[in-house]
Amino acid sequence: MSNVVVSLLGQRLDNVGFGAKRWFRWRPTLSLLMHHDFQVDELVLLYQEEEEALLQKTIKDAESICLNIKVTTHKVTYSNPWDLEQVYGQLHNFAESYDFNPEHNDYYFHITTGTHIAQICIYLLAEANYFPGRLIQSSPSPEGPHGKYQTINLDLSRYDQIASRFHKEAQESISHLKSGIETKNERYNELIREIENVAVRSTAPILITGPTGVGKSQLAKKIYELKSHKKKLEGKLVEVNCATLRGDNAMSTLFGHVKGAYTGAVSERAGLLMEANNGLLFLDEIGELGQDEQAMLLRAVEDKVFTPFGSDKEVSSDFQLIAGTNRNLYERVEEGAFREDLLARINLWSYQLPSLRDRYEDIEPNIEFELNRYAQNTNQKVSFNSTAKSKYLSFSLSSYADWKANFRDLNSSITRMATLSNGGRINEANVDKEIERLQYDWSGGGEVQVSASDVLLEETLSAEVYESIDAFEKAQLAEVIRVCKESKSMADAGRKLFDKSRLQKAASNDSQRLKVYLKKYGLEFKYL
Amino acid sequence: MKIIDGSQGEGGGQILRSSLALSMCTQTPIRIENIRAGRKKSGLGHQHLMCVQASQMICNAKVSGAEIGSQTLTFEPGEIQAGDYSFPISTAGSSCLVFQTVLPALLLAKRESTLRLSGGTHNMMAPSFDFIERSFIPALRLMNIDISTELHAYGFFPVGGGEWSATIKPLDETTPIMLMERGEMQHSAIVTQAKVKSHVAERELAQVQKKLAISASDLHINEVIAACPGNVLSVQFKHTDGTAEVIDSTGRRGLSAERVADIAIKDARRYLDSTAVVGEYLCDQLLLPMALGSGGRFTTLKPSLHTLTNIDVIQSFLDCEITFTEIGEDCFEVRC
């Protein structure tokens, strides 16, 4: 690899006179050639026509410092070195015309000479990869004419402190997208990490799929808040469920109409797309959108223009689209109900949110979240007692819990229990009743078959043992397991379970009795 | 392959130069790791690379890792070839350090060699040509090593452009060196300068005269021609056997003439306060030729970490014992 330095000939800094004294002075461009730990194989000098004499002297001095250096020149012409347009244009021309060969050369653009405008332009060119190299900066030092130099890598993530700052910021954004819930499901967390990246960097459409109640519109709202917080957009969040749009009304709601566009259109209406200008439009249930609306939406997304209903003039609105759906849009395309080109356009960033059943690790943190939300909405703090909590949790995680409407179900369930609880405490009775209710709902209003004890036993016992025990034993065993789960130690559980009989014995060994009992069912206290 | 840890001791360029010299002399392939790990900008610098390339040239070595910034270098020497070599050194790199690196190998060659060195002749942080000519070579002569040099042009930082040549006769029968007592010394100070106002040299010498009590007739200004300006003050103590202690200080912008002089004066005072014959830098340079030749004894100042590291490197290649015995204040006897 050879090192190639590109430097603007500095009209002031590189020009310190032609006498012998120049060798004592720091000349930024030439100083780069004097370092023993940085070899310059080629120097490319960008100069202005009137600097010809300085250029020739600089070339001569460069060649006397470095015996084998190659010096090439490139003329730039700008009447005003403080005019960004002119300077950028000239430097861009250079970058475009220069035959960069990054396979064989390392390029360094020297930013110490030239105006601040030139520095800004060099930075912009490097950042946009027009200049495939690093920036290098030099500064004077009392050590001698060679001064100091420093290479600057624009990839900020390479700097530890900055990287950790970015990391912290990203963590905050991710936490925001998750509504502050400490989710543990790896797939979900991974998904949110990527959405965070996309939300911050991209203005392209995002498609969020997933069954009802997984939080699509919640997520859209959080993305909006994040972008708005980061000043990535200025406009509003406009939400609409496409299933509610029908007929003339659909066109007009989305794209607006002019006065008299249809019967009843007595005044002009701007429409939701216009309202979302410079903001974010969330179209939920996009699969329900009619054909005409799909065609118009495609145009609005691709070209940022559309025609209001009944108008012959195009209007324009710049918005980011987030679409939500619980349908398989590919199937809708096959059925001819959804435009393939529109799907392709909105499918760039497509995310499927997992159902609550697929995120069983996240049920517990979400229960806490729902309780907090209830507290905030009603100003009433509500919590579970510990037995009630473990009962509700073990039901939530069991195969009996369908969570058909996902987080919507969880939200309703917690709201019901919290409302029915007395003194801000959700007890076992509340939980039992709620479990019955949920099962009734999920069975489509059918019969309730499973008791809470059954749930606990199925969760705890091996399938083989569970199948083999009589209904007669189940109630007792379930109660023992419940007490064990609550107790700190086996002795503690033993005292509670054998509370009467232990009084009649001289020396009671409750732990031993409990251990033997549990062993019959293949259980050990420490695993409960 | 012999592995050398470049970070041992003072961890600088001397480990590299001594290792290259000894690798060639003993025909031992080496790998140097953690090159200059002790320095702020670690790895091979331009100057070090020049030493590697010059060494490669005189013995046809197989080399890998020879690039700027490289921390690991492998060097497999071939047979040492006497001949006429020219080593152009860019960016005013020190030609004296290159000379120092290739000299031991060429002493072991079958025929006489001539070197033409161009680059810096008076650099900071490196022995100057004055030191080579007046201190190092006369001491080697006492060991029956025959080298003659001739300076054609001076070279200062940052342009260099200095030029000198050296004729190196192969070793015949070496004699042990004995430099135990000083005897009479002739004190002098010389400023060598190019394109610098004469008052700078005058002030440097005035400071030396004031603080070291050197008589006016032993102060000299040597105005020279060079590609770029430069200024070096050299305080010299010449012994009756022709050897000398040479102490240099390089002038630069931002450092007053008096400060430049003070740097040399400080080292000169230390030398005068001791009874040792050989100064710190000469001691460093003499050990390798002594170990390759017939050894000897001399008195010197308290050894620096630089010297101790150099001894470790020498002893890792050669079966020799180098001992330091304290015999007075800041005075040690060295046996090899």
From TrEMBL, chain A:
Gene3D superfamilies with a match to the protein in the record: 1.10.8.60, Hypothetical protein VC1899 like domain (Restriction endonuclease-like) (3.40.50.10770), P-loop containing nucleotide triphosphate hydrolases (3.40.50.300)
Keyword field contains ATP-binding: yes
Record domain Sigma-54 factor interaction: where: 181-419
Keyword terms of this UniProt record: ATP-binding, Nucleotide-binding
CDD domains for the chain: AAA
Domain of life where this protein originates: Bacteria
Protein's recorded name: Transcriptional regulator
Lineage of the species this protein comes from: Bacteria, Pseudomonadati, Pseudomonadota, Gammaproteobacteria, Thiotrichales
Automatic annotation (TrEMBL), chain B:
Protein name per UniProt: RNA 3'-terminal phosphate cyclase
Family membership noted in the UniProt record: Belongs to the RNA 3'-terminal cyclase family. Type 1 subfamily.
Record lineage: Bacteria, Pseudomonadati, Pseudomonadota, Gammaproteobacteria, Thiotrichales
The EC number(s) this enzyme carries: 6.5.1.4
GO MF entries: nucleotide binding; RNA-3'-phosphate cyclase activity
UniProt keywords, alphabetically: Ligase, Nucleotide-binding
Top-level taxon in the UniProt lineage: Bacteria
Pfam families: RTC, RTC_insert
A biological process term (GO) from this entry: RNA processing
Residue ranges of every copy of the RNA 3'-terminal phosphate cyclase domain listed in the record: 9-323
PANTHER family attached to this UniProt entry: RNA 3' TERMINAL PHOSPHATE CYCLASE, RNA 3'-TERMINAL PHOSPHATE CYCLASE
Keyword Aminoacyl-tRNA synthetase listed: no
Principal EC category: ligase
Catalysed conversion reaction: a 3'-end 3'-phospho-ribonucleotide-RNA + ATP = a 3'-end 2',3'-cyclophospho-ribonucleotide-RNA + AMP + diphosphate
